[in-house]
Amino acid sequence: MTITAISTVHPLRSWIRLQLALSATALMVVMFRSAQIVHLSTETGAVAMWRPILTTQAAFWLGWSVWAGILVPLVRRLVDRPLSRAAGVTALVALAMLPPFVLPVAYAPIHWAMFNRVRPITQAYGHMATHDLLTNILLSATLVGVVYGYSSLQRARRLEVAAAQLSEQLTRSQLETLRVQLNPHFLFNSLNSVAVLARRGKVAD
Fold first, then answer.
1. Most exposed residue of 12, 27, 80, 114, measured as fewest CB within 10 angstroms of its CB?
2. How far apart are CA 61 and CA 81, in angstroms?
3. Tens digits of per-residue pLDDT, 25-68?
4. Distance CA 114, CA 125 (A)
5. What would the 3-class secondary structure string for 64-87 be?
6. Which residues have C-beta within 8 Å of that of residue 178, sequence separation ≥ 6?
7. Distance between CA 3 and CA 174 in Å, rounded?
8. Percent over 90 (pLDDT), the chain
9. For 108, which DSSP code?
10. For the CA atoms of the chain, what is the radius of gyration?
11. Is 6 helix (H, G, I), strand (E, B) or coil?
């Protein structure tokens, strides 16, 4: 196998692709929530306040997209410099469980401002943190799983490239050794040494 046969992805391109995939995943959650609001409004006959709702959902999507960009290097570090199994699992679980409770700090003030500041901002945070909590945890776990799987695949490819490079260097070294051994001067000296040893053997007899 030659090194050119193994494809590697540039780190920046890899990050961009992964970022787009994770942002798209968060956008799907936003669309799902919007569809739920439309369905609920249709059933109850309530008038949905679309401007604050869509603004809050956009802030939700932006917050999770920014978190995805931070998540990628964190998980890659865990993959490239693995800890003990227990520590690695604990770190991944923490990365999956903390965002649903931490990210609302960023978009709860927008929700609070868009709904005319009727309730205290702490209640806005509580609402954003507990609203669709299971969906947020599932989203967070999905992001961690996607990044971990993709990073593990990239690490396996890098190791494959390194192994191919070592194999090629070893092959070149072996060929160079054979070339030196087949050099006429080396061959002549070897034959001359054999002849000298043969003569010494006859003299000793």
1. 12
2. 30
3. 888 888 887 777 777 777 776 666 777 778 888 888 888 988 98
4. 13
5. HHHHHHHHHHHHHHHHHCCCCHHH
6. none
7. 18
8. 17
9. H
10. 32
11. coil
**What is the Cα–Cα distance from 104 to 46, expressed in whole angstroms?**
26
One-letter identity of residue 51? R
The token pair at 139 is: 């989203």
- Interior angle at CA 145, CA 85 and CA 150, nearest 5: 95
Enter the tokens of residue 77: 């570090």
Tokens describing residue 63 = 């917050």
Reading the block at residue 193, the tokens are 């040494």
Tell me which amino acid residue 123 is.
Answer: Q
Q: How far apart are CA 198 and CA 204, in angstroms?
A: 10
Strands (E), 21-80: none
Four-point Cα dihedral 71, 69, 16, 73, nearest 10: -40
What is the C-alpha to C-alpha distance for residues 78 and 96, in angstroms, rounded to an integer? Answer: 14
